[in-house]
Every structure is written in structure tokens, then in C-alpha cells.
Amino acid sequence: MVCVCNATYCDTLDPVVLPAPGTYVKYESSKAGKRLERSEGSFQRNAKTPGLEYNLIRLPMACSDFSVRPYSYDDVPHDYELKHFRLAEEDVKMKIPLLHRASAMSRRPLSLYASPWTSPAWMKSNGDVCGKGTLKGQAGDKYHKTWANYFVKFLDEYAKHNVTFWAVTVQNEPLAALLMPSEFPTIAFTAARQRDFVIHDLGPALARSPHRTRLIILDDQRIHLPRWAEVILGNATAARYVAGVGIHWYLDGIVPAGSSLGATHKLFPNHFLLYTEACSGFLTLRFSVSLGCWERGDRYSHSILTVLNNFVAGWTDWNLALDLEGGPNWVKNYVDSPIIVDSSKDVFYKQPMFYHLGHFSKFIPEGSQRVGLHSSCLICQLEHVAVLRPDGALVLVVLNRFGWDVPFGIWDPAVGFIETMAPANSIQTYLWRQQ
Question: Which of 41, 303, 318, 377 has its CA 20 to 30 A from that of 67?
Fold first, then answer.
């Protein structure tokens, strides 16, 4: 189930227009072939009670594994004043122009946040941008001060190109660095070392800078929660510098959402939870890219619904577009993505993952608030979330992961009742305004 797009054709989605009071609109995608298909209906008052506007973008600070080469912004040894700091060609000729184009096309302001994979080699214990190294020395020393100032330099240079960042994460996958193959660009941190770096170096450096950029800790798997948050946010000084906790989805099956996400929110309700990386096709022996695979999109929606119902504020895809191989990736860590580009034919394929993302990003704008929803035993076969938009409209997303149709009803006391059905292997978004 893909849309084949080229220079002259690609399916489109009109701007969201709220329906008239007493009516609703429904958008449906399915394994059978529907792609955000729109329909309309009306609430019944006499019934018995029973594009996507994606705007959250993560940008690597210098290289990641999905670069075409390893690099940093300052490869001159012992340049503690960062006099030789320079953005790379990838930033100036690719990332920044693309961000400007995306911003110009977006109906909503883009929220950008940056994550570092590695420091320059001369700052690392192993002397290499790749491999299992830590920052040399300890928090508060010249290496840690320089690395903190490197973040500010990055923000300074992007600001010169009229690109500002809502947030930065302290480090991409600080604990996975201990598990990855030696060719990956990484810096390893424990929670205690990250806490001390935030307290003595990065927190103060950002606070002194002219940038109003927020700081996100962890940026790794939820198996480390709530312990990682307890170590850092349990320290009052560190907590003042930190806005939220970043989470990756890869090991979600190991630990329940409630005992990780829910427990962290209960302990630190004033710090947001944000899913900062997810992708399908990782660590597969066959078919990193599986064109038209409904199940991979289905897993996206299952994750988003689960985490939204456990206090997570947003969800970020790792790569929105990749090539047919699932790259480029200089360490050959190929994965799948919502859009696959075939440059040899000048076409791209919008996959089920693309449409699953749209069922959320198109209809749930920033500032929406999750609301309570009571469900009967019948609808418990379906996964769902309900949110109140800033404009007062209500959104209900319903996912049916089963191979059979599930009839159900929607009852809003302020409007009325809808008798409807979730087809087998489908996702639906309902939108209506209250009277």
C-alpha cells in the first residue's frame, strides 16, 4: 500500500476545516488500500448511550550514522576556545536549505531540536569520533567546558542562517554507546556523569547564551526510566536546567509504559516526556525497506497511541525519507522510513507509515490536550486516544489491529451519538466540534 509520487503527481490532503456543529468528519487509512480517505456524517441525538502538518524535527549536530561520512565541526586538536569551529558542507548546502524550504511550506511553525552523536575526536577518551569513548576528564574541566560551548557555537552558527532551535538533547543514546559496534559515532554517559555535565557545564553554558533553547536528557530507551530521571531530576540544580526527557522506542517491548513513562511522570510532572526517535526495519536480516508494509505503519500508530496515553507530549520519526536501500548510512545501519526515494526514476513512495503519522500530526496540533475517554468491553479491542484541540474541536483516533471489522459507537453528551465501524487493519481519525 503505497502512493507512487513523481514530479507531476502525488496524492494530497486539504487543510483541516472544522465541520459544522452536529456533524463530524472521518479520515480513514487501511491495509485494503485507503489513504486518509475523507467522509462526513452527523451525530444522532436520539441514539442510546452505549498532508500531514508534521512539525517536530530532530537534527543531528554534525554527523550521525545516517550521514555519508563521519565528521565534527572542529577537528583541530586542543582548540579549547573553538576558534576553528565551522559548520560542515552538509549543514550549509543541505540541512539549512532544506529547513528553510520546510519552514516556508509548513502551515505551522516548526519545532527544531538538535542531538549530538559525537564530539571531535580530540575530546574523546578513545581519540576517535567513532567507538566506545567518553569525554575526557570529568565534569567542570576544560574538556567538558569546551564540549558545552560547542553546543552554544552550534546554535550561534545556525542562528546566523535564521534557524533557531527549540531544544537540544544532551547526547544521543548515551548508554547504547556501550553496546553499539565500534564504527558508530557515540559518546557514552552514565546518568551520574550526565547529571554532573548538566550541572557544571552544559546547563550554565546554555543559560548564559542568548538562545532560549531547552535541554532534554536521556534521549535513549525507556528501560532506563524512571531511574535515569531520578538521578538527574532528583538533583534540584540539574532539574532547573532541564525541560524534559527524550525517549527512543526500540526496546519498548521490554518494559511496560506505565512502569517507565507513567512512573517518571508521577515523579516529575513538570518535566515533559518526548519520543525523540523511532523507525522500522532496524536490525533486520532481510528487507530493511519493505515497500507498502501495512504492519510497519500499524506499529507506528500502536506506539503513538500507547505513549500519548502515558503522558508523552510528542513523537518523532527518525528519518522521514530514505533511499531504496534504507540509507544513506555510512555504517550500513539501514532501516525503513515513511517515504522511500528512487532517484533513478525521479519518484518517491509514500508508505503506510506516512499515512499513520498523518492520522495524528494533521489533526492534533501543538497545544492540544488529552482528555478522558470511557470505553466499554467491546471497544477495548480497539486502541484509541481522544484530545481537545486549542480551537475547541475534539479528535478521536481509533486503531484496529485485528483482521476483522469492529463496530462501535462514539457518544459525546454535548453533541450526540455516532454509530460506526473500524474496518479490519485500519486507522481512523474523527474530528468534530462541540456545541
Answer: 303
